[in-house]
């Protein structure tokens, strides 16, 4: 009996390799985030990216062994671009009234991208929180504000305002801010200011895993914030101009992904191709006959029966 087994293997030289994890490198040289990024790209692969818990543990192990005593740059950063829901640009679009006594905006725990108003002072807030909100009717230049006493997330509040008014409140000056404050009746309310969650890894890795510390990350007046690893192994944001040690990463020597077609003659007694010992023998023989890395041919191997 003859059976065909298709194997997808990674060959590096003459050896079968597993997937290649990141290798982290602690650099004890204080640089700005941009300087650290350039150093890592020139010397290794890039500033450290982390995609899962295992990589987070590996990175923490690397820096723990170096006995670092301060925050360290990693490759994460965010662009700060505040926008009004109704798209206002130009005159009045840059008006802000942050609650500076509370260090707002503070990107608390790395999850705040929408803006609420309380007693006329503005806070960045987690968009999924349910609050009452201020809509406006009329026009951008001459708005009439209304309190909606339904509690919704920021996105749902915007949808409601667009369906029943014009949009969530745009606030262009102190006079309009006072009107919103009076309409809010001392309640915390959504207004239309927000920013997209533009968070990126330096090497282009998709941002999905996070390990933010619970706490404030003040960034008032900044157009970009960068992430640092704290001594507890969690993340916080700082001004990108802060000078810190940092962590780079590199990848092992690239491996070739090779499809190998194995022709196996099986006689009595039959061979179980799912048996771990049989699989190991197949991989050993395939790797011992693997073509050079520059070859792209499909090789067919015929093995004698297993005893």
UniProtKB/TrEMBL annotation:
Membrane-crossing residue ranges in chain numbering: none
Keywords: Disulfide bond, Signal
Matching Pfam families: Lectin_C
PROSITE patterns: C_TYPE_LECTIN_1, C_TYPE_LECTIN_2
InterPro entries: C-type_lectin-like, C-type_lectin-like/link_sf, C-type_lectin_CS, CTDL_fold
N-terminal signal peptide: 1-21
Keyword Nucleotide-binding: no
Domain C-type lectin: 24-136, 131-249
PANTHER family referenced in this protein's UniProt entry, alphabetically: C-TYPE LECTIN DOMAIN FAMILY 20 MEMBER A-RELATED
Protein name (Swiss-Prot/TrEMBL): C-type lectin domain-containing protein
Gene: RS1
């Amino acid at each position: 009996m003859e059976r065909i087994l298709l194997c997808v293997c990674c060959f590096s030289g003459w050896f079968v390799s597993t997937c290649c994890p990141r290798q982290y490198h602690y650099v004890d040289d204080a640089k700005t985030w941009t300087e650290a990024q350039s150093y890592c790209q020139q010397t290794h692969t890039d500033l450290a990216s982390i995609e899962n818990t295992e990589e987070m543990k590996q990175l923490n192990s690397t820096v723990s062994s170096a006995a670092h005593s301060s925050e360290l740059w990693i490759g994460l950063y965010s662009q700060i671009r505040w926008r009004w829901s109704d798209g206002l640009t130009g005159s009045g679009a840059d008006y802000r009234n942050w609650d500076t006594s509370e260090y707002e905006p503070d990107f608390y725990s790395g999850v705040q991208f929408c803006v609420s108003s309380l007693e006329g002072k503005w806070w960045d807030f987690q968009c999924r929180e349910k609050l009452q909100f201020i809509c406006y009717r009329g026009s951008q230049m001459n708005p009439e504000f209304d309190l909606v006493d339904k509690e919704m997330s920021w996105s749902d509040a915007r949808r409601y305002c667009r369906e029943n008014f014009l949009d969530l409140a745009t606030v262009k000056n102190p006079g309009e801010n006072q009107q919103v404050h009076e309409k809010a009746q001392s309640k915390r309310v959504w207004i239309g200011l927000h920013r997209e969650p533009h968070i990126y890894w330096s090497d282009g890795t998709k941002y999905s895993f996070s390990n933010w510390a619970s706490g404030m990350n003040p960034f008032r007046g900044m157009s970009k914030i960068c992430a640092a690893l704290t001594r507890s192994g969690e993340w916080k944001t700082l001004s990108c101009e802060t000078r810190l040690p940092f962590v780079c990463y590199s990848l092992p020597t690239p491996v070739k992904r090779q499809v190998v077609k194995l022709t196996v003659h099986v006689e009595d007694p039959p061979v179980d191709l799912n048996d771990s010992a049989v699989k190991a023998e197949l991989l050993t023989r395939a790797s011992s006959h693997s073509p050079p890395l520059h070859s792209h041919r499909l090789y067919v191997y015929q093995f004698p029966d297993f005893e």
